[in-house]
Design a protein that fits this description.
With about 190 residues, this protein is an alpha+beta fold. The protein has three domains: about 30 residues; about 90 residues, Alpha-Beta Plaits (2-Layer Sandwich), CATH 3.30.70.1430; about 60 residues, no CATH class. It is about 40% helix and about 15% strand. Strands 2-3-1-4 form a four-stranded antiparallel β-sheet, covered by helices on one side. It is elongated.
Amino acid sequence: MIRYFSRHPTAANLLMLTLLLVGLVSLPKIKRETFPEFAPPYIIASVVYPGASPQEVEESLCMRMEDAVDGLANIVETRCEAVEGSASLILKLTNSEVVARMLVDVQTQINAINDFPSEIESPVVRELDWNEPVVDVAIKADTSLPHLKAYAEQLKRTLKLDYGVSLVAVSGFSDHQLRVELDEIALRQLG
């Protein structure tokens, strides 16, 4: 074939021109995206433990969650991040076809842990979104939790409005609760 095209340069030029035209015709049909969609093979299990130090989170949450998912198939890598007030277990899976089944399996395994501290919020297991935070900001102050939460909410508004950050989330605070304690002796006297 090389010998043929070396003896017939016009045929070689016509073939090159044909390939160039086919490429130009198919160019608009090629799918191009800045951020192509794909299903990342990662699952994240998050548990909020209000007021706990990273060491407490590591010992009481991370180690137990890692042990719970240790025997599951289709996990390539397991990593747990302990920060003040929360733990995140990140699981890298073998492929994206097993994500739906693994979400159920991981949720089942984590819900089966019965020696979590009573102060934790319900564990959340979800597929890792690649729009996850680029930056995590921890706020610590010598003030009450309501004041600290109000400051965090104000910081959230400032980041959204003044700096144009589209997605800002506040975590590590529990919802407001009202506790009513009744005097048992007084209740018995009233009947």
